[in-house]
Amino acid sequence: MQAYSQSLERLKTIMNDLRENCPWDKKQTIQTLRPQTVEELYELADAITDEDWKGIKEELGDLLLHIVFYCKIGEEQGRFSLGEVIEGIGNKLVSRHPHVYDQLSVKDDTEVKQNWEKLKLKEGKKSILSGLPKTLPSMVKALRLQEKTKQVGFEWENTAQVKEKVEEELKELQEAVDLKNQDKIEDEFGDVLFALVNYARFLQVDPENALERTNKKFIRRFQQIETRAAAMGKPLETMNLQEMDALWNEIKQDEVKPNS
Fold first, then answer.
1. What are the angstrom distances between the C-alpha of 17 and each of 30, 65, 85, 90?
2. Among 24, 29, 53, 217, whose Cα sits 20 to 30 Å from the Cα of 234?
3. Cα–Cα distance between 146 and 64 in angstroms, integer?
4. What is the pTM of this model?
């Protein structure tokens, strides 16, 4: 514990030094730091997706720096200190875990989540959907909306019902396409995506992770197409879709071949 305390105090001292002596750090505000913080969060998310533990460690350090930076600015403006932030989250965790720190009995993690939402409402939240960031990526937001409303019983009974809902939404999308109604197409396409997120949740798949894995797979395969085309002396812009698709299929086959 003493080592942690010394490390944190050292980081606070460095932050004080930078804020006083570095021209760049002096200029920063909560508004100028915000986009960089978002970038750091995504870099951490990338490291987690890749299970890159060295990267996770580094990105957590970068994120911790941002937390200390915001607290330094908060202190300068008489708003809050790092100690108050730490004390606040500690108090919240104790309050939101009465099954650990009080006499409440729960049987599983589902009841923990349900009680968490009830406690938030008691604390003054007007809706169980309150508190979701407006700028949260839409797919992540859809997942969180579904997870939150599940806590009050707004939930399908089984996976088959969710799959049926996906098929229903796809049918409605096709009807809008047939009518060539662009506003309706966009609306129905959103419904399809929302239903697919729900289906992913029932299949115990994180839709954001799943899509990112597919993005990375697409990047890897397309870059291999570029490499193979270059080796053949054929720039991509001179190839037709059938030729590129043939390379794509070759790459897919190579990926499933057992290691020799």
1. 18, 13, 21, 28
2. 217
3. 30
4. 0.73
Digit-by-digit pLDDT tens for the chain (260 residues) are 667 789 999 999 999 999 999 999 999 999 999 999 999 999 999 999 889 999 999 999 999 999 999 999 999 999 999 999 999 999 999 999 999 999 899 889 988 988 888 888 888 888 889 888 888 889 999 999 999 999 888 999 999 999 999 999 999 999 999 999 999 999 999 999 999 999 999 999 999 989 999 999 999 999 999 999 999 999 999 999 999 999 999 999 998 876 53
**CA-to-CA distance for 164 and 170, rounded, in angstroms?**
10
User: How far apart (Å, rounded) are the C-alpha atoms in residues 128 and 113?
Assistant: 12
Cα 8 versus chain centre, distance? 27
d(CA 145, CA 155): 11
HEC string of the chain equals: CHHHHHHHHHHHHHHHHHHHHCHHHHHCCHHHHHHHHHHHHHHHHHHHHCCCHHHHHHHHHHHHHHHHHHHHHHHHCCCCCHHHHHHHHHHHHHHHCHHHHCCCCCCCHHHHHHHHHHHHHHCCCCCCCCCCCCCCCHHHHHHHHHHHHHCCCCCCCCHHHHHHHHHHHHHHHHHHHHHCCHHHHHHHHHHHHHHHHHHHHHCCCCHHHHHHHHHHHHHHHHHHHHHHHHHCCCCHHHCCHHHHHHHHHHHHHHHHCCCC
